[in-house]
Every structure is written in C-alpha cells, then in structure tokens.
Design a protein that fits this description.
Order of helices and strands: HHH
Largest sheet: none
Number of helices: 3
Distance between the termini: 40 Å
Radius of gyration: 22 Å
Shape: elongated
C-alpha cells in the first residue's frame, strides 16, 4: 500500500468512527444496550492505530531514502553560488 492510500484510508476510518460514536450516543439515549457497538468501535480504533503505525513506518523509510538537506549544506550551496544567507 502506498502512503497516499494509507492516509486516505485513515481519513475514511476516522469519519466512520465519528459516525459510530454518534450512533452509540443515540442508542444510549434510547436506552438500548451498546456493548456490540462499542466493541465495533474498539476494533475500528485499533485498525486506525495500525494504519497510523504503517503510515509512520512508510514516512520513516522515505526520510531515510531522501534525507532533507541540513542548514549547513544549504548555506554551503548558497555561498558557492554567490547568494547571501
């Protein structure tokens, strides 16, 4: 899975979680047992946690592949081209 797909899946799951939380509140107001709905919510939260961990792992891999330039290397390249830093 690529990082953009993971991010969109996280966003989608978070919307579903909000809907599930609202549904649980509605059930509680109506006096209906919410155990199964709360269990589903826990599974959804666990899935989002897993997706976030996977996203973070992918981001870390990308940073190792393409390290960001440091300030000192940027200053050296600017000085070489004659720019003021």
């Amino acid at each position: 899975m690529n990082i953009d797909h993971i991010r969109s899946e996280i966003e989608h799951m978070r919307r579903q979680i909000l809907r599930q939380q609202k549904e649980i509140q509605d059930l509680q107001r109506a006096g209906i047992h919410t155990k199964s709905a709360e269990e589903l919510l826990e599974r959804m939260l666990a899935k989002v946690d897993g997706l976030c961990a996977e996203r973070d792992r992918h981001v870390g891999e990308q940073r190792r592949k393409y390290p960001a330039p440091t300030k000192s290397s940027m200053a050296r390249s600017s000085a070489a081209s004659g720019e003021l830093v």
